[in-house]
Specification:
The complex is a heterodimer of chains A (about 110) and B (about 110). Chain A has about 110 residues and is an all-beta fold. Chain A has no helices and eleven strands. In chain A, the strands form two sheets. In chain A, strands 2, 4, 5, 6, 9, 10 and 11 form a seven-stranded mixed beta sheet that branches. Chain A has a four-stranded antiparallel beta sheet with strand order 1-3-8-7, with no helix packed on it. In chain B, a hairpin with a 2-residue loop joins strand 6 and strand 7. Chain B is globular and about 40 Å long. The chains are: A mainly beta (about 110), B mainly beta (about 110).
Chain lengths: ~110, ~110
């Protein structure tokens, strides 16, 4: 079975650009999470979907970050416009249902904003 | 201030020994999670806890919601246990991570 896949693995953007990161959860999983990891801020939850419904939108990230679940097997995270402080590893995870079930993480997308 | 504090921040363990990691939080957590990020950067779920304890092989975790802390005990540490351990305190859909404990297991 395929795990969580994320594309691209690396992205370099100029300040002010729009970038879209993609995630395919494990087939059959109902919950999908987007996280950001930086050396300074550590791990932060950006968005949480349950059965395609947005449950948590990570308040602090609302203005330039938008996560969508277009169908049960595909999600995107759009950052518009990008800023240098957005440079981070963006991780996607999925679980069967709720936190009681193990989360499976993707390999992450390393974003560098110049 | 930090809502989720982990201690120690770094730890070196001899193979075969035991240790405990701690996570204190200042939010009213209903559940706690523990994750391991290996040296290559891959993250994996270790535990998801409601108040109480869970055990999985050489790992055991406890969550005390009244005292707002959680612990992760590692028994008979192995080289492959090396990495950074994160705890996350959850309150509803709100989730806050600690800054991690970097563990190195040495022969």
């Amino acid at each position: 079975d395929a795990g969580v896949t994320q594309t691209p693995r690396h992205e370099v953007a100029e300040k002010g650009q729009t970038i879209i990161l993609k995630c395919e959860p494990v087939s059959g999983h109902n919950d999908l999470f987007w996280y950001r990891q930086t050396k300074i801020q550590g791990l932060e939850l950006l968005s949480y979907f349950r059965s395609k419904s947005l449950m948590e939108d990570g308040g602090a990230f609302k203005d330039r970050f938008k996560a969508e679940m277009l169908n049960s097997s595909f999600s995107t995270l759009k950052i518009q416009p990008t800023e240098p402080k957005d440079s981070a590893v963006y991780l996607c995870a999925s679980s069967l249902r709720g936190g009681a079930y193990e989360q499976y993480f993707g390999p992450g997308t390393r974003l560098t904003v110049l | 201030g930090d809502k989720v504090k982990q201690s120690p921040s770094a730890l070196s363990l001899q193979e075969g020994t035991n240790s405990a990691l701690r996570c204190n939080f200042s939010i009213a957590a209903t559940t706690v999670q523990w994750f391991l990020q290996n040296p290559r950067g891959s993250l994996m779920n270790l535990f998801y806890l409601v108040p109480g304890t869970k055990e999985n092989g050489r790992l055991k975790s406890a969550f005390d919601s009244k005292e707002s802390y959680s612990t992760l005990h590692i028994r008979d540490a192995q080289l492959e246990d090396s990495g950074t351990y994160f705890c996350a305190a959850n309150s509803g859909t709100y989730q806050r991570f600690g800054t991690g404990t970097k563990l190195q297991v040495v022969p």
